[in-house]
Structure formats: C-alpha cells, structure tokens
Amino acid sequence: MATTPDTTLGDAGEFGLISQLVEIFEGDEHVLVGPGDDAAVLRIRHGHVVVSTDLMVEGRHFRRDWASASDVGHRAAAQNLSDINAMGGTARHLTIGLAAPADLPLEWALDLARGFAEECASVGATVVGGDVTRADQVVIAVTVIGQCTQAPVLRSGARPGDVLALTGRQGWAAGGLAVLGRGFRSPRVLVEAYRRPEPPYAAGRQAAEAGASALIDVSDGLLAEAGHLAEASGVAIDVRASSFAVPEPLQAVGAALGADPMQFILAGGDDHALLATFPPDVAVPEGWQVIGEVLEGSGVTVDGSAYDGATGWTHF
Amino acid sequence: MATTPDTTLGDAGEFGLISQLVEIFEGDEHVLVGPGDDAAVLRIRHGHVVVSTDLMVEGRHFRRDWASASDVGHRAAAQNLSDINAMGGTARHLTIGLAAPADLPLEWALDLARGFAEECASVGATVVGGDVTRADQVVIAVTVIGQCTQAPVLRSGARPGDVLALTGRQGWAAGGLAVLGRGFRSPRVLVEAYRRPEPPYAAGRQAAEAGASALIDVSDGLLAEAGHLAEASGVAIDVRASSFAVPEPLQAVGAALGADPMQFILAGGDDHALLATFPPDVAVPEGWQVIGEVLEGSGVTVDGSAYDGATGWTHF
C-alpha cells in the first residue's frame, strides 16, 4: 500500500501496520524467529526461549458487563498461553500490564489478576512482573515467555499434500459472543465458552512431537488463520465444511438469530483451537480432526470455492 | 490498607495495588526474583534471563505536542532498557504493544517504532514481537528481556555503612518537563533531555562488577527511588544536598519559574540515572558520585532532615 503523511492506522489496517513495523525491527543472530509468527524464538544460551505479547482493550476485546473480571483475566492469559501452544512450546512466565481509569473498582483489578494467575497456573506458568498506570480505558498488556524442548513449529512449514487438522472447540466462543451481543445469556455453555475459553494446551507440544509441519492458534477466525498459514507457507488450503459436525448449541443459536451456524465455526476465533498441518507420512495424533488439505497455489477455499462470508476479525 | 468492594484504584494507589497483586502472583523455583524489583529474574536452563514490563499512556506519560513520535519511541525503550540496567544486566530483546485510535497517523506509529528500534540498537538489543490494536488513547506496552552474566544486583542489598552513589544526569528531564508545562521550549538542552533521555547504560553492569550492594534506576524521582531502596533493604538513607552541583540550565529554569532548582534534582525522574549503594570496602567506580550514606533505621532524609517537597511521581 502506498502511504502518505495523512495515512491513518485505520487506512493501513493491522496487517499493513505490522508489515511495516517488521521492516523497522531488525533481529540479530539470537532471534531464531522474530515478528510474524505466533511468538518470537530466542536463543538464550542453551535454551529456546519463546516470547509473545498481546493487548486487550475494554470495549473492543472485552466488556465488563459481558464477563466477570476473573473471566477477563482467564481470557487474557489464555490468549497468550495459546500463542506458546501454537509454537509447540511450554509457557513458563508472564508479565501483565494494566492501564485503567482511577475509578475502576480495586476488586475488579484483583479479580482480573486472580483469574489471570489461575489460568497461568493451569499450565504451570507464573506471572513474573507487571506494571499499572492510569488511562481513560482499561487496557491489558500481556507478555508470555516459554520454552521449546524441540524445534518450534512455525506457520511456514506447510507443504502441498499435507493434511489440515484441528483440535479444540471451534465456534463456541463466537456463538457465545453472538448471543451476548443480542442481549441474551444462553445457551449458557456457549456464553461460558466465550467468557472462559479452554484452549487445548497439551496439543501444541503433542503436534510438534508427532511431526506437524505447521501450527497456528485460531484467535482471529478459522479461515483467517488458515489464510495466515497458507500465506506464510506459500501454499493453498482447502477446508472441507462437511468435516465439521455442528454442535447442538450452535445449531440452536443459528436458528434463534437467523444465522448459518457454520459461520461461527469458519469465522469464529477466541476458542484458541489449534490448526496444524501434518505431512502425508505422519499419523495425525489422537484428538486431532482432519478438516482439509494443503494444495499448490495460494489462498483459502471452502469445499473448493471462495468463501463469501467474513473470515475473521480485524483490529483497525 | 483495609479495602472494601467500593475501593477504587485511585483509593488504593499504585503501590497498594501492586502489593496486593504480588500476593496473587506466586513464583516458582525458576523465578529467582519475582515482582517487586526492577525486573524479574528467571532461571532458564543455564542463564539468568531478566524481564521487565512498562506501560506509557498518552496524556499521562507523554504528549504528542511535547515530543515527536521518534522521541516517544526513544523514551519508551529507554525506560525499559533502564530497568535491565538497574539489575546490572544487559538488555537483549523487547516486545512492544501499541493501542491507538484509528485516526492516529500511520507515520506517527512508524516514527515511534523507528525511535524505539534506534534506542534498542544503541545497547545492542532488538525488538522480537509486538501487538497493535485500537483504543481511545495511545497506550504503549513494552516488555524487555535481558541477561545477567553475574548475579543481578537487587534493591534489597544495602547495609548501614554503605555509601550512596549516583551516575547519569539527574533533574534535567524534570526541568525540561517543567518548562514544557509552562509553554516554553527552552532551555533546549533540558527539553531535549526530557524528550530523549540518555541513561547511563554501561553503568549498571559496571556497578555490579565493582561490587554494588544495591541498585535501582531513577524513573520516579530520586528521593522516591531512594525510599524504595531503603524500604527493600530495611535501612535508612540520608542524601547530602551539598553533593549536587546545580547545572546552569536548571538554575536558569528555577529562576524563571520561581522554583528551587534542587527540587528537580531531588524529585525528578525520567533521566533514568542509576542509584547504587557500595559497601565501605568497595571503591566507588569511575563516573559515580557519592551523594549520601546508608544508615540504621528507615526512611529517607536530606541532610539529616525530612524533605518537605514532593519526592516523586505517583501513578494513580
């Protein structure tokens, strides 16, 4: 995109901005993987240290009337822990920054921290630092540091002939968000899936050890993430819609809202499911479901055709 | 402080909040130093990895009409690099998160990133990740990861009989901020000191290698940081005002604004000077100036008496 001094972030879009930022930030020989994948990989003496960072903004990534502070803490941690999962790594240490208005109830901040710490503890990770400051709006900034015992699995390793596989719930959080957005609180199982995702934390390392060729977590929408993987790998991806059984609660929400429930599955994020590709000679591990294939070319199709709905979420 | 469900962040204050957060976040055997010092220290295999995080909020930590985007980037990096310096470590890798309104000029964000990367490069550190998202206000979230080749120097090691020493400019940035606050742009050397601090990046490791007993960087005000050091060490600190030569530009600003220029030195932050204590049998290294002494007791005095001005900056 050609830019002028008047170009705004909104004009450039998230990816336009990031692509330019990546050019500005140079790595060194200790950065095995810099910006552009789910996490950075650092060679610090004898280990592979994996680092990722994320921001959550009130009104954009969460609403205080849609989820408790503890839920928001769980979600903020899960989103970051999932990035380490998506490298095939093990999350170890996190920092959290909280910018908030001075009239934010202290209990809200403490419950946030408690939920955050609980989610971290569920994978054996700990919070090692943070910062708090005043702002007009609640902003939560998280950085996670993890380790890989084997080579990290990147987005760029998919090859034509590989199978595409998914593990974890997919579309549930999007369904929950949709009902909350209409003022409802049920089906409760979907609302809870949105409020407190349950990423398949053990599956990243499992996929890495099984021999996955590429790995990414579904934070921004299944087709959008498949697109990121396809682009990084220089391949095309075809998703088979028929491989998904639409869970009953999503069917109910689709009927109630007059929406195609497949939309939640194909475009939903926030469950932090994992999407992997496996070479043809690798057995897809237990718990993973084959949902498509890797082809020569570029872009993402559904059952061989372009998908005309939204594919995910944009940040600007 | 007794808290109720109605207690706000403003009521609790930054340190009230942090002290409660620290109780919520438990470390593990790999966290050599958790929250409460300048940075967290992690044992990751054979190295001491040092991590710190900070937030900067527009209108609170910077104003776009007082400093260029590049300056803000330099400051954001300097503030974090200084935290690693204050452990006696070497900064290696940083992440940066940017939350910003959609109408923020793209060039502002890119210049911010450039300034940030330049400051990092000046100490051999690199940016390894980041995140961008939309918010009502510009918020910059930085995490820095560093290494220590020797044991990190904490805030808690000062002992009675140690000398207190300072290195780096002190009070210049506060003087610059004061003139900007009155609508002036000179003395230029002070305004530039505020816009682009020059922390003594080599001095942290120098102090560690020389045998400093405690180390902290002056981000929030000299007396405030001396107070943090005294409290963490369980000692009293007396600062000798006569040890400071008031630089000519600070004298000029004091005269112009009708303020005591010593106030900038004693309560100013943002220069990211380093404050250390050295045991009596250790030679204070070159470039460090003895400015006081460590005593039995608690609290901070100036020339033996309580200081009745502001001692630093509070975040809520």
From TrEMBL, chains A, B:
<keyword id="KW-0479">Metal-binding</keyword>
<feature type="binding site">
    <location>
        <position position="53"/>
    </location>
    <ligand>
        <name>Mg(2+) 1</name>
    </ligand>
</feature>
<dbReference type="InterPro" id="IPR010918">
    <property type="entry name" value="PurM-like_C_dom"/>
</dbReference>
<keyword id="KW-0460">Magnesium</keyword>
<dbReference type="InterPro" id="IPR036921">
    <property type="entry name" value="PurM-like_N_sf"/>
</dbReference>
<feature type="binding site">
    <location>
        <position position="54"/>
    </location>
    <ligand>
        <name>Mg(2+) 1</name>
    </ligand>
</feature>
<dbReference type="Pfam" id="PF00586">
    <property type="entry name" value="AIRS"/>
</dbReference>
<feature type="binding site">
    <location>
        <position position="38"/>
    </location>
    <ligand>
        <name>Mg(2+) 4</name>
    </ligand>
</feature>
<feature type="binding site">
    <location>
        <position position="52"/>
    </location>
    <ligand>
        <name>Mg(2+) 4</name>
    </ligand>
</feature>
<protein>
    <recommendedName>
        <fullName>Thiamine-monophosphate kinase</fullName>
        <ecNumber>2.7.4.16</ecNumber>
    </recommendedName>
</protein>
<feature type="binding site">
    <location>
        <position position="217"/>
    </location>
    <ligand>
        <name>Mg(2+) 3</name>
    </ligand>
</feature>
<feature type="domain" description="PurM-like C-terminal">
    <location>
        <begin position="159"/>
        <end position="302"/>
    </location>
</feature>
<feature type="binding site">
    <location>
        <position position="61"/>
    </location>
    <ligand>
        <name>substrate</name>
    </ligand>
</feature>
<feature type="binding site">
    <location>
        <position position="131"/>
    </location>
    <ligand>
        <name>Mg(2+) 1</name>
    </ligand>
</feature>
<feature type="binding site">
    <location>
        <position position="83"/>
    </location>
    <ligand>
        <name>Mg(2+) 4</name>
    </ligand>
</feature>
<feature type="binding site">
    <location>
        <position position="38"/>
    </location>
    <ligand>
        <name>Mg(2+) 3</name>
    </ligand>
</feature>
<feature type="binding site">
    <location>
        <position position="270"/>
    </location>
    <ligand>
        <name>substrate</name>
    </ligand>
</feature>
<dbReference type="InterPro" id="IPR036676">
    <property type="entry name" value="PurM-like_C_sf"/>
</dbReference>
<feature type="binding site">
    <location>
        <position position="83"/>
    </location>
    <ligand>
        <name>Mg(2+) 3</name>
    </ligand>
</feature>
<feature type="binding site">
    <location>
        <position position="220"/>
    </location>
    <ligand>
        <name>Mg(2+) 5</name>
    </ligand>
</feature>
<comment type="pathway">
    <text>Cofactor biosynthesis; thiamine diphosphate biosynthesis; thiamine diphosphate from thiamine phosphate: step 1/1.</text>
</comment>
<keyword id="KW-0067">ATP-binding</keyword>
<feature type="domain" description="PurM-like N-terminal">
    <location>
        <begin position="36"/>
        <end position="147"/>
    </location>
</feature>
<feature type="binding site">
    <location>
        <position position="83"/>
    </location>
    <ligand>
        <name>Mg(2+) 2</name>
    </ligand>
</feature>
<feature type="binding site">
    <location>
        <position position="313"/>
    </location>
    <ligand>
        <name>substrate</name>
    </ligand>
</feature>
<feature type="binding site">
    <location>
        <position position="155"/>
    </location>
    <ligand>
        <name>ATP</name>
    </ligand>
</feature>
<dbReference type="GO" id="GO:0009030">
    <property type="term" value="F:thiamine-phosphate kinase activity"/>
</dbReference>
<dbReference type="InterPro" id="IPR006283">
    <property type="entry name" value="ThiL-like"/>
</dbReference>
<keyword id="KW-0784">Thiamine biosynthesis</keyword>
<keyword id="KW-0808">Transferase</keyword>
<feature type="binding site">
    <location>
        <position position="219"/>
    </location>
    <ligand>
        <name>ATP</name>
    </ligand>
</feature>
<keyword id="KW-0547">Nucleotide-binding</keyword>
<comment type="similarity">
    <text>Belongs to the thiamine-monophosphate kinase family.</text>
</comment>
<keyword id="KW-0418">Kinase</keyword>
<comment type="function">
    <text>Catalyzes the ATP-dependent phosphorylation of thiamine-monophosphate (TMP) to form thiamine-pyrophosphate (TPP), the active form of vitamin B1.</text>
</comment>
<feature type="binding site">
    <location>
        <begin position="130"/>
        <end position="131"/>
    </location>
    <ligand>
        <name>ATP</name>
    </ligand>
</feature>
<feature type="binding site">
    <location>
        <position position="54"/>
    </location>
    <ligand>
        <name>Mg(2+) 2</name>
    </ligand>
</feature>
<dbReference type="Pfam" id="PF02769">
    <property type="entry name" value="AIRS_C"/>
</dbReference>
<dbReference type="InterPro" id="IPR016188">
    <property type="entry name" value="PurM-like_N"/>
</dbReference>
